[in-house]
Every structure is written in structure tokens, then in C-alpha cells.
Amino acid sequence: MKTVNEIRQEIAPVFKPVLGEFRIKTYFSYYAIFKHNLMIALYQNGTTYLRISRNDMQSITLHPETYNLSDDKIGLQSKKFYFIPNTILTNTSQFRSLVQSTLDELQSEKQKIDNKRSTQIRTLPNMNLKLERMLKKVGIHSIQDFSETGYISTFIKLIMQGFDATEDLLFKLNGALNHQYIYTFTIQQKKELLQEANEALYASGLRKKFNTAI
């Protein structure tokens, strides 16, 4: 198998005019080509497979020389990567259009994922998917919902829904909104939180839950 630098020299005449600088990594028995950390093509033994955007899929499938990547040796099947013949590779404007369309689609998809992740409660300190699902059951679906509700009100909601609201959960909720991991909590901080929770429970008509003599 050739080195990455050898492959770079081999494919640079095709890719550099349309990509500028790009990165290569091994991918099974292929070489993956990246731009902006997005994998746009696979290369092996002089053969280029380009990831095709939805906008170009119909035209590329109708092209008489293209076909989708299928490698039974390593069990790699892809309906998104297509063999690109020299008639397209050597047509810089056509190849650039295909590559740019793919990059635009991948960047758009990445932005959607990043935007979704920025609202997910599981991304906060101390939180995980299980706790995120728990909060959703009391109507808290995003970080904004959580922030607006507050950690004490969220804790009360969970108790009223029958969840086992422990000291540990209280600390996690507080730490999540204050960007602090619970292992950094001081004894005094924990005591004040337990007292605050007891007062909120009492004000909500519920029995005090915690022993604050810690």
C-alpha cells in the first residue's frame, strides 16, 4: 500500500485545482480525501469515487460510465460514492461543480447536527441521555427549557412525576446549569443546595426530603 504522501502526489493534479489544500487518511484499503474535515472522496489504485450530493445524484446515475461503490472484499457498499471517470475528472469545471455541491451538502448537514447538539441537555456537565429523557418527561426538551425552569423547579417537577429524586440528581442538575461537575462541589455547597431543596419542597406542599447535617 502506498504512503499518504505518494497518493497525495498522485491525485494532486486532479484535486488541488478544485480543493486547494486537502487531507488524506487511510480508510480500509482506500484513501479517504477530506476538505474541512469532511470526507468527500475515496481513492484506490487510480480509481476515484466521489461522494455525490442529492442535487447531482440523478445526473450522475444517468451518466453511462459511472457506478456506485461496491467492494465485496471488505464489505463496503455505498449508494453515495460513485466512480468518476476521466471524462469528468479532466473536466475541471464539471468536477469542481460536483465537489462543491458535495461540500455544500456536507457542511449544511454538519451545521444542522451542531445546531441540534447545542440544544441537547445531554451535552451539559453531569448529564447524559438517560437524564435528558427523564427531563423530557416533565416537559423540559432543551437547554433553554432547562435554563428557564431552573434546577430547583426541575427537581420538584421530577419528584411530582414520581421519579427517584436523590441528592446526587439535585447536585447534577445544579452543576449542569452552572457548568460545574459534581466532584468539584464542596461540602458547604452541597449543604446549601439540600437546604434550598428542602425549602422548595415544603413551599410546594411536599415533605422535606434531605438531612442537611452533612
UniProtKB/TrEMBL annotation:
List, for all copies, the residue spans of the domain called TfoX C-terminal. Answer: 119-196
Question: Pfam families per the record?
Answer: TfoX_C, TfoX_N
Q: Which GO biological process annotations does it have?
A: establishment of competence for transformation
* Origin superkingdom: Bacteria
State the SUPFAM superfamilies in the record: YgaC/TfoX-N like (SSF159894)
Domain (TfoX N-terminal): residue spans on this chain: 19-105
Parts forming coiled coils:
none
Instruction: Show the InterPro entries listed in the entry.
Output: TfoX-like, TfoX-like_gammaprotbact, TfoX_C, TfoX_N
Give the protein's recorded name: TfoX/Sxy family DNA transformation protein
Q: Which organism is it from?
A: Mannheimia pernigra
Q: Write the lineage as a comma-separated list.
A: Bacteria, Pseudomonadati, Pseudomonadota, Gammaproteobacteria, Pasteurellales
